[in-house]
C-alpha cells in the first residue's frame, strides 16, 4: 500500500515533464517517422522509397561520413583530455573552485560571441595567422579549406572540456578513498591504482560522458552554421547541414527519413555503450 | 512546523500558478464565441469622386473647402507647357454633386500665372480668406497673394523668401502654406517650418517638421510631424514653443497630410489610412483602414485630407507620375461588416509595387474581400532569406500558407516538384486568347505543358554601346574576343569584382547550369576566360566607394564602351536613349533575355482559390498593367500599347562632378517607346536564377580576377563546392 502510494506520487510528479517531452519531442518525432513513409506534400504513401533515396544520396553519405569522423575524433579526445584535467584538478590543493569555474566558463558564453571570437582568430587575416607570420610561417586559410575541420574540433573541445571534467570529478568523488588506502598498503603504485581502481569505478561515468559528448557533438552545428554558413567546406559538411538545406527546399520526406536513420543509429550506439559500460552501474 | 508551513505555501503557489489561467481562457473563449455569432458591423467605404477637369487641357492644382464647406478644385490651363498655366479656373461642387466652373479674377494675377510661373497652390486660410502661392523664374522665386475682398488681392511680402539659398542655388521652396485665425502665416519648407507676420513679413518663430513638411494649423497652434517623423508635434505660437508630442509608436507611419476639425480633433492621412487623435491625446484611432482602400496604392500619394459633413472624409491624391489627381470620398456605412468576411492572403519575400497596386484595385472592386499582404523581409528585417523560406515551408507543410505566393527568391522548382503550386494554364490561356497576356512570356515560363507561375512584369536585359560592340554581344565569348582585340579604352568603367560577376553571370548561368541543374565545368571555365578578356585593362577592386560601377552615364561620358543592364521602365529608357544618340550607338536586347519579376503562383492548399484566381487576373489587368511603376514592363499587350501612347511632361538630368558630360533626358517619342514594348513581345529566355551557385561563383571570382587563381582552378573549386549542393 505504501509502495503503491509512493509509485502514484512519483508518476504524478513525473507527469508534467513527461507531457512536455511528449508534446515537444516524442509526438513530433512520431510525425517525422510517419512522414518518412509519405511523399512530401501529396500525402501519398511511398513505403521505404524515401529511405532508399536517402541512402543513395551523395550529400547524405558525405555528411554522414563527416559526422562520424567528427564524432570518432572528438569524443575520445574529449574524454581523455577532460579525465586528465579532472585528475589534475583533484590533485591540486589550492584554487580548486576558481579553476573549475574557469573551465566551465566556455559553456556560459553565448554562441554568437564565440563565433565572433573564432572569426577574429581564424580568419585569413586573423590573429592566428598574424602570429604565424611573426614566426615566419605562411598564413593558412583556416575557414575555407579542409583545415576548417580542425577549427570545429578545437571549438568543440574548448566548449565541452569543462563540463565533462566536472562529470569526471563527480565520478571520482564517488570512489571510496579506503580502496586507495588498501591498495597502497598492498604496494600498488599510482598507475596500478589508476588502472585497477579508478578506471573500473569510472565506467558508469564514462558511459554518461560518452553519451552526452555524442549528443553535444551534434550541437557543434550551431558554430559551424554561424561561422561557415549553410554550405560550408566539404570536410565539415555535417548531417544537420543536409537536413537544414532539405528543409529549405521542402524535401521533407528525405529530411524525415534521414532523421529517423540518424536517430536509430544514435540509439543503437547508446544501447551498445550501455551494455558495455552502463551495466557496471547495475552490478 | 516550519517545514509543514513551507509545504503548504509551495502547494498554494503551485495551485495559483496552475489555476490562474483558467478563468482567462474562459473569457477569451466566450469572446471568440460571441464574435463568431455577431459580426462587428460598420466601416468607412471608399468611392471615387469623378473630378470635373479636362485631363488633356487642364492640370489640377489644389482642392480646398470654402467657407460654406463646399469643395473647390482649382485648375490651371492654357500656357505653352501644362505646368505653366496662363489661366486658373475653379470648379465648385454643388449640393447635388455636380461641379460649376468659373474663373476667379483675384487669383489670375501676374504673380500667380505666366509663362515662367508654376507650383500654384490655393489655400483656404483659417482667417476666412483665400490665399495663393506660386514660384516663378529659373530660381523659383516664391510669391504669396491674399484675396482681400471680392476680386481684390494683395501680395504678402516676406523678405526672407526673396533670398537665394546658397547651398542649393534656388529661393526657398514653399512645401505647405497654412494661415492661422489671427492671420499669421505658417510655412513649411523642405526640412523646417517658420511662422511669419504678414504685416511686415517678419519671422515670428520656427517650428519642427519632417521632410517635405506636411502640416496644418488650429487656432494658434501648428500641427506637424516632428523632425524624424516619429510623432505629431503641436507647437503653440503664442507661447513660442512646442506644446505636446503624440508618438506614432512602432506600427504607424508618419502623416502625409493633416486636417483639424472644429472640435480640435486632429485627423492624419497616410498609406495606412485615416486616423484621429485629440490634441491632448496619446493614441491614434484608425477610422479608415488604408489596406482596404486605395490609400495604400503605390501609384498614388496623399496630398490632403479633408473632413466633410458629418462622418465624411475626402482625400486628394496625386499619381506617382504626376499626370493626374484623384479625389476619394469615405462614408461610414453601418450595414457593411467592419472587416470583410473573406480574406485573401498574399506572401512575398520583398515588397512589390505591382502587387500593392493590384491589391488597391482588387479591394475597390471586391469590397467583401480583405487582402492581407505579408512581406517576409521588410525594411528593418534582420532575417535571412533561408530563415523566411523555412517559416513559409513550415506553413506549407501544415497545409496552410498564403493563398497567393509571389515566388521571387523562393525555391520555385522544388515547390513545383512537390505540388505546392496550382496549374495556371486555364487562366493564362484565357488571358492570352483575349489579348491580355504575352504568349512568349508564358511559353518560356512553362514546366512541361503546365504553368505554375506567371510573371507580372518583365525587365529587359539590354546592352548599350556602339554597333560594332553590340554585334559582339551574341555571346560572352564573342564579347571577350572583341575586348581582347580592342586597343582603345577598356570596355568597362571602374567596377567591383562582385559587380562584374553580377553583370555578366545572368547572361551565362543558363549555359553553366543545365536543365537538370548540373554544372557544366567547361562552360564555367569558358565563362571565366571570357570575363578575363572582357576585364582587360578595367580598373577593378573591392571598395564600392571607389569602384562605383558601370552605367549608361559612363558610356556617354566615354569612361566605358558598353553597359549591360536590366531596363525596368521608361525612366531607364530615357537616359539610355540619350546616351545611345550621343555615342552614335544603340540599345539592343541581349539574346532574347529577360528577367521575370513578380512571379505569382497560387497555393494548391489555399482555401480561397476563387479569390486567388480573381486576384491573378487583377494583377494582369490593364488597370494595373497600364501603370509604369518602375519595376518592369507590362506583360499585357494592351497595356504595352497604352505605354506606347503615353506622353508625360517630365525630364531627368544627370551630371557628375568628375566629368563635363551631362544628360538631360525628356520623355521619349512613341516610336522609341515602341522599340522596348516590342522587345517585350519578342524576348524568349528568362534569366536563370540560382542564388546558391551565383553566391559560390561570386565568392571565388575575387581570387580569379585578382590573378590568384586560373580559370580552371576557379571553375574546379566551384564545381567541387557545388557538387554537394546539387547532390542534395
Q: How does this structure look, described?
A:
The complex is a heterodimer of chains A (283) and B (728). Chain A is an all-alpha fold and 283 residues long. Chain A has helices spanning 2-35, 49-56, 58-91, 96-108, 111-122, 127-134, 148-173, 177-185, 190-201, 203-219, 221-228, 239-248, 252-282. The longest helix of chain A has 34 residues, at 2-35. The two termini of chain A are 29 Å apart. The mean pLDDT of chain A is 88. Helix content of chain B is 30%, strand content 28%. In chain B, a hairpin with a 5-residue loop joins strand 23 (313-319) and strand 24 (325-337). The chains are: A mainly alpha (283), B alpha+beta (728).
> Percent of residues of chain A in helical segments?
over 70%
Task: List unreliable stretches of 5+ residues of chain A.
Answer: none
Radius of gyration of chain B: 30 Å
Shape estimate of chain B: globular
Give the radius of gyration of chain A: 23 Å
Sheet with the most strands, sense and barrel status of chain B? 4 strands, antiparallel
Residue share in β-strands of chain B: 25-35%
Would you tell me the overall average pLDDT of chain B?
Answer: 87
Greatest interface (CB-CB under 8 A), with counts per chain: A-B, 22 and 22 residues
Order of helices and strands of chain A: HHHHHHHHHHHHH
How is this structure best summarized?
The complex is a heterodimer of chains A (283) and B (728). Chain A has 283 residues and is mainly alpha-helical. Chain A is 78% helix and 0% strand.
Please write out the topology:
The complex is a heterodimer of chains A (283) and B (728).
Chain A: H1 2-35, H2 49-56, H3 58-91, H4 96-108, H5 111-122, H6 127-134, H7 148-173, H8 177-185, H9 190-201, H10 203-219, H11 221-228, H12 239-248, H13 252-282
Helix pairs in contact in A: 1-13, 2-13, 3-7, 3-10, 3-12, 4-7, 5-11, 7-10, 10-13, 12-13
Chain B: H1 2-37, E1 41-49, E2 58-65, E3 71-77, E4 87-93, E5 99-102, E6 117-124, E7 130-136, E8 141-147, E9 153-155, E10 176-179, E11 185-188, E12 193-196, E13 203-207, E14 215-218, E15 221-225, E16 231-236, E17 241-247, E18 257-260, E19 266-270, E20 273-277, E21 285-289, E22 300-307, E23 313-319, E24 325-337, E25 342-348, H2 353-365, E26 369-375, H3 385-397, E27 404-406, H4 412-417, H5 425-433, H6 439-443, E28 457-465, H7 467-470, H8 476-485, E29 495-496, H9 497-512, H10 521-534, E30 540-541, H11 552-557, E31 562-567, H12 570-582, E32 586-597, E33 600-602, H13 609-620, H14 622-625, H15 637-645, E34 651-654, E35 663-666, H16 670-682, E36 685-686, H17 691-705, H18 711-727
Parallel strand pairs in B: 25-26, 25-27, 29-30, 32-36
Antiparallel strand pairs in B: 1-24, 2-3, 3-4, 4-5, 6-7, 7-8, 8-9, 10-11, 11-12, 12-13, 14-15, 15-16, 16-17, 18-19, 19-20, 20-21, 22-23, 23-24, 27-33, 28-31, 28-32, 34-35
Helix pairs in contact in B: 2-13, 8-10, 9-10, 9-17, 10-18, 15-16, 17-18
Amino acid at each position: 500500500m505504501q509502495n503503491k502510494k509512493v509509485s502514484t506520487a512519483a508518476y504524478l510528479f513525473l507527469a508534467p515533464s513527461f507531457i512536455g517531452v511528449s508534446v515537444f519531442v516524442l509526438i513530433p518525432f512520431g510525425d517525422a517517422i510517419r512522414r518518412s513513409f509519405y511523399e512530401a506534400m501529396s500525402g501519398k504513401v511511398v513505403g521505404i522509397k524515401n529511405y532508399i533515396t536517402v541512402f543513395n544520396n551523395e550529400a547524405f553519405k558525405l555528411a554522414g561520413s563527416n559526422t562520424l569522423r567528427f564524432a570518432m575524433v572528438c569524443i575520445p579526445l574529449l574524454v581523455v583530455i577532460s579525465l586528465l584535467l579532472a585528475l589534475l584538478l583533484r590533485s591540486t590543493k589550492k584554487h580548486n573552485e576558481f579553476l573549475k569555474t574557469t573551465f566551465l566558463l566556455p559553456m556560459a558564453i553565448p554562441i554568437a560571441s564565440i563565433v565572433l571570437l573564432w572569426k577574429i582568430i581564424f580568419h585569413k587575416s586573423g590573429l592566428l595567422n598574424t602570429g604565424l607570420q611573426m614566426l615566419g610561417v605562411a598564413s593558412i586559410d583556416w575557414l575555407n579549406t579542409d583545415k576548417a575541420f580542425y577549427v570545429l574540433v578545437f571549438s568543440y573541445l574548448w566548449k565541452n572540456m569543462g563540463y565533462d571534467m566536472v562529470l569526471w570529478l563527480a565520478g571520482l568523488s564517488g570512489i571510496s578513498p579506503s580502496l586507495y588506502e588498501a591498495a597502497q598498503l598492498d604496494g600498488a603504485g599510482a598507475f596500478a591504482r589508476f588502472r585497477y581502481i579508478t578506471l573500473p569505478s569510472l565506467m558508469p561515468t564514462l558511459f554518461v560522458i560518452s553519451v552526452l559528448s555524442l549528443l553535444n557533438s551534434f550541437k557543434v552545428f550551431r558554430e559551424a552554421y554561424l561561422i561557415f554558413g549553410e554550405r560550408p567546406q566539404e570536410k565539415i559538411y555535417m548531417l544537420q547541414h543536409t537536413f537544414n538545406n532539405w528543409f529549405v527546399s521542402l524535401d521533407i520526406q528525405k529530411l524525415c527519413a534521414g532523421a529517423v536513420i540518424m536517430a536509430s543509429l544514435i540509439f543503437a550506439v547508446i544501447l551498445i555503450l550501455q551494455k558495455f559500460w552502463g551495466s557496471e552501474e547495475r552490478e | 512546523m516550519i517545514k509543514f508551513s513551507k509545504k503548504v505555501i509551495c502547494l498554494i503557489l503551485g495551485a495559483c500558478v496552475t489555476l490562474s489561467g483558467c478563468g482567462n481562457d474562459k473569457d477569451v473563449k466566450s469572446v471568440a464565441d460571441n464574435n463568431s455569432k455577431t459580426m462587428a458591423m460598420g466601416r468607412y467605404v471608399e468611392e471615387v469622386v469623378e473630378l470635373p477637369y479636362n485631363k488633356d487641357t487642364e492640370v489640377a492644382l489644389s482642392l480646398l473647402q470654402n467657407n460654406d464647406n463646399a469643395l473647390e478644385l482649382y485648375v490651371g490651363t492654357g500656357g505653352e507647357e501644362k505646368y505653366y498655366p496662363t489661366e486658373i479656373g475653379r470648379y465648385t461642387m454643388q449640393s447635388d454633386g455636380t461641379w460649376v466652373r468659373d474663373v476667379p479674377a483675384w487669383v489670375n494675377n501676374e504673380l500667380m500665372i505666366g509663362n515662367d510661373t508654376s507650383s500654384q497652390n490655393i489655400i483656404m486660410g483659417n482667417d476666412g480668406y483665400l490665399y495663393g502661392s506660386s514660384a516663378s523664374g529659373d530660381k523659383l522665386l516664391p510669391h504669396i497673394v491674399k484675396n482681400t475682398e471680392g476680386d481684390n488681392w494683395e501680395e504678402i511680402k516676406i523678405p526672407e523668401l526673396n533670398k537665394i539659398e546658397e547651398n542649393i542655388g534656388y529661393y526657398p521652396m514653399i512645401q505647405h502654406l497654412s494661415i492661422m485665425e489671427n492671420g499669421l502665416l505658417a510655412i513649411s519648407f523642405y526640412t523646417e517650418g517658420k511662422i511669419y507676420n504678414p504685416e511686415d513679413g517678419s519671422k515670428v518663430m520656427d517650428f519642427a517638421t519632417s521632410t517635405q513638411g506636411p502640416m496644418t494649423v488650429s487656432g494658434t497652434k501648428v500641427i506637424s510631424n516632428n523632425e524624424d517623423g516619429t510623432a505629431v508635434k503641436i507647437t503653440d505660437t503664442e507661447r513660442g514653443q512646442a506644446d505636446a508630442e503624440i508618438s506614432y509608436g512602432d506600427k504607424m507611419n508618419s502623416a502625409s497630410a493633416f486636417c483639424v476639425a472644429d472640435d480640435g480633433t486632429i485627423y492624419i492621412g497616410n498609406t495606412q489610412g485615416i486616423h484621429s487623435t485629440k490634441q491632448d491625446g496619446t493614441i491614434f484611432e484608425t477610422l479608415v483602414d488604408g489596406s482596404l482602400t486605395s490609400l495604400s496604392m503605390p501609384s498614388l500619394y496623399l496630398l490632403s485630407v479633408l473632413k466633410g459633413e458629418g462622418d465624411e472624409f475626402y482625400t486628394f491624391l496625386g499619381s506617382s507620375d504626376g499626370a493626374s489627381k484623384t479625389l476619394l470620398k469615405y462614408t461610414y456605412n453601418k450595414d457593411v461588416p467592419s472587416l470583410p468576411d473573406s480574406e485573401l492572403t498574399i506572401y512575398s519575400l520583398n515588397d512589390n509595387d505591382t502587387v500593392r497596386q493590384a491589391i488597391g484595385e482588387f479591394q475597390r472592386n471586391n469590397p467583401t474581400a480583405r487582402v492581407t499582404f505579408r512581406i517576409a523581409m521588410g525594411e528593418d528585417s534582420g532575417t535571412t532569406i533561408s530563415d523566411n523560406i523555412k517559416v513559409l515551408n513550415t506553413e506549407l507543410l501544415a497545409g496552410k500558407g498564403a493563398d497567393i505566393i509571389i515566388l521571387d527568391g523562393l525555391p520555385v522548382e522544388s515547390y513545383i516538384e512537390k505540388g505546392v503550386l496550382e496549374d495556371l494554364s486555364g487562366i493564362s490561356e484565357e488571358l492570352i486568347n483575349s489579348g491580355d497576356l504575352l504568349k512568349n512570356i508564358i511559353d518560356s515560363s512553362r514546366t512541361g505543358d503546365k504553368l505554375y507561375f506567371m510573371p507580372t512584369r518583365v525587365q529587359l536585359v539590354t546592352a548599350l554601346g556602339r554597333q560594332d560592340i553590340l554585334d559582339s554581344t551574341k555571346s560572352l565569348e564573342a564579347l571577350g574576343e572583341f575586348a581582347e582585340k580592342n586597343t582603345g579604352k577598356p570596355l568597362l568603367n571602374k567596377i567591383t569584382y562582385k559587380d562584374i560577376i553580377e553583370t555578366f553571370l545572368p547572361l551565362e548561368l543558363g549555359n553553366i547550369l543545365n536543365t537538370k541543374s548540373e554544372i557544366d565545368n567547361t562552360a564555367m571555365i569558358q565563362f571565366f576566360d571570357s570575363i578575363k578578356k572582357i576585364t582587360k585593362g578595367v580598373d577593378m577592386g573591392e571598395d564600392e566607394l571607389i569602384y562605383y560601377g558601370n552605367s549608361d552615364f559612363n558610356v556617354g561620358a566615354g569612361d566605358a564602351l558598353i553597359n549591360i543592364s536590366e531596363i525596368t521602365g521608361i525612366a531607364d529608357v530615357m537616359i539610355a536613349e540619350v546616351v545611345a544618340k550621343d555615342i552614335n550607338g544603340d540599345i539592343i536586347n541581349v539574346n532574347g533575355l529577360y528577367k521575370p519579376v513578380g512571379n505569382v503562383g497560387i497555393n494548391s492548399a489555399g482555401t480561397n482559390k476563387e479569390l486567388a484566381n480573381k486576384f491573378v487576373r487583377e494583377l494582369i489587368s490593364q488597370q494595373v498593367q497600364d501603370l509604369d511603376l518602375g519595376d518592369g514592363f507590362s506583360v499585357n499587350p494592351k497595356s504595352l500599347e497604352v505605354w506606347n501612347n503615353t506622353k508625360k511632361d517630365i525630364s531627368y538630368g544627370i551630371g557628375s562632378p568628375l566629368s563635363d558630360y551631362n544628360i538631360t533626358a525628356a520623355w521619349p517619342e512613341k516610336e522609341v517607346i515602341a522599340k522596348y514594348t516590342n522587345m517585350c513581345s519578342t524576348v524568349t529566355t528568362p534569366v536563370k536564377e540560382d542564388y546558391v551557385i551565383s553566391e559560390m561563383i561570386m565568392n571565388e571570382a575575387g581570387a580569379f580576377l585578382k590573378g590568384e587563381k586560373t580559370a580552371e582552378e576557379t571553375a574546379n573549386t566551384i564545381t567541387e563546392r557545388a557538387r554537394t549542393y546539387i547532390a542534395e
